[in-house]
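Technical note accompanying the year-one report. For the benefit of new consortium partners, we illustrate the data format agreed upon in the data management plan: each record pairs a sequence with a structure-token string. No post-processing was applied to the example shown here.
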Amino acid sequence: MKQLLSLFFSFVLLGSAFSQTNELLVHFTNNVKGGVFGTFEKVEIGVELPAADQQKIMNFLMGMRVPNGDKVNPFLAWDLDVQGVFTHAETNQIVVVPAFFYRDFRRDTLKNEYVGIDVKDNMRIRFAAPFPGDWTCTINYKVKQKPQAQKAVLKFSVIDSGKKGFIQVHENKRNFVQGNDLIVPVGPNFPYPMKGVNNYHTTRDANGKEAFDPFTTNTVTKPKSYLSYFKDIDNYHQQGGKYFRTLQSGWASLIEFEVKGNYFNRLHYAWEQDSLLNYCEANDMFFSFNLMQQEPFMKYGNYDMFDWDWSQYRSDGSFEDDSRFPAYCYSDGKKKEPHEMFTNEMDLLYHEQRIRYYMARYGYSSNIYMFELLSEPWHLDQLTHVEPSMTDTKEGEACRKAILNYHTRMAQFIRQQLPHVKQLIGVDIHVGKIYDGDKYIDSSIYSPFIDVIGFNPYTSIPDKLVITKSGDNNVVEENENSMYRLVNMLSSRTNKPVMIFEGGPSDGVDEFSNYAQQRIDMMSFPFVGLAGFYSWIGWYYGHETVLYNIVASEDFTNSNAFKNVLFQSKGNWIQGRQMEKKSWKDKKSTKELQYYISEEANLSVGYVKNRTFNYYTQATDSTLITRFPKDPTFSKLVDVSYKNGKDLVVEGLKKGKTVEIVWYAFDTGKEFRRDSVKSKKNLVLKHPVLTVTDPANMNPMFWFSLVVKD
């Protein structure tokens, strides 16, 4: 009842803003240059529907008891389909863009709540012209799939803005480009606001009041938390950060949770996504937009997120029939399995409409470079610590088929029914058993509508990137266990770039080791064949300290020293990796090397690493040592020089040439030393000492770049 009253009072005000005319009226909402816009810049058109159609929308949103023909849901295309047909005068190229229902807001920071602002043009169309010239937009619409006679036309001009446009896949199918520039997206996750957000209703304030109740699940995240979130992103930007990743969560951003197909009470979250996008467009920042975090399709949400999961399950597997809190709307209030919504035709149509809304509202912008369909879909149907999709059971098979169906269906919907969308489409997959063959792989990675494959590795072992490797550095061996082998297998099988969407050390490691493992991971990941990667650490309380390292890694991977290697000729680079023991007595290899060699074999970039610098040897709290197994090789800090053990070598360069090498220091990525050597066969890397025992001179790792002189 409270939600109904909220809708009623909202529309008492909103109704006064509705047009009383019988005409279809249109105008530019951001016409700041007299009808002239730049390429890849937002053109927003406000559409006022005739009064009779606006009344039908109001009837639906207020839950009026009127015939179905007198009610129109503005969020579903089969009820209301407003489109802008954009035509370029010179080429006659046509782009069709769907409209979306819009509510305007302001932040009341004193009351810490959102206040709606009346607007007449509740239907909005957003477009960004890919090239200059004269454009015409014709607006038409359907009600209940019946074309309406009224149309409207707007004309505008577009000039070159200098923006590079959408990030796309490089011709080598392993990297990204924007215009003529190689792009390596490196950054943190800024998934959603969390500072000041209490998304557990069981927590109570000083007066004993629950954090939220069944009628306010749509207002858990307040304006002050969003302002704090934007401040954190601005801090990252001020340090030089450019790329990051977001996720749509039930408590902070997802537009559909309590009610299927009705987003009205959650549009303040969509408005805040506009704020984020506006900031990125103004500051040349780019992010990957994940369309749904995993809790809604889990029976019991991980990390005890039981208020935002599928239904009223308790952690012991029992069902709580009398829970006051709403289950995720797709559960339909029944003991329905989550995977069924990914196979049920009517549910899939509703999922398409939610994605249609996101694409209509944000798909114009090249500052969103990728849409990820789901976060960690392998949690589908999960109730305990066991992930059904990773088991050889009937339920596991049902989950895998449902994930495949959802990914391919939604990606095809975006590409074929919303063809104006230029962003990359990514899928997040589990790789825990990938070496066993295709049995547990999400087969949607092979879909022609999927552009990018991502995975989320979390582990703290110091040798996790190269565990077993022998023979030639540049050859992938059948029995090899390395991160590059995994990435190369995914990329070569699918002909698609591979990313880490989120990753880092295991839970609880970083806070007790001065983020040592995370810092060195951020410097290592660029060299394992990835097209880009996002750290999970960096956005949460106290983690801001690692943003400096993330920016240093981003700067280096987007420098000419790095990009020229991957970008040379057609970008057919090769990767090499090696590990060596410091002493024959050692059980494990202390030294690690990974690198790229350019297509013409005259450029290389890579790193050398001392594995004894890790979460264990940098522990600042004894509890960390007791919670993680002691490694006899990597539990003591030992300095490593190039004379220790076997040589580290770069294989595959042009032979008999002079090679100039630049070494870059740990943490900062600043130039440390330059060398000039003669290469006879393979280049022996006489690297600086990998010092870890002197706190004033810590260099457990060096990047290097080299040029073979003719």
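Partners are asked to follow this layout when depositing records. The first strand starts at residue 25 and ends at 28.
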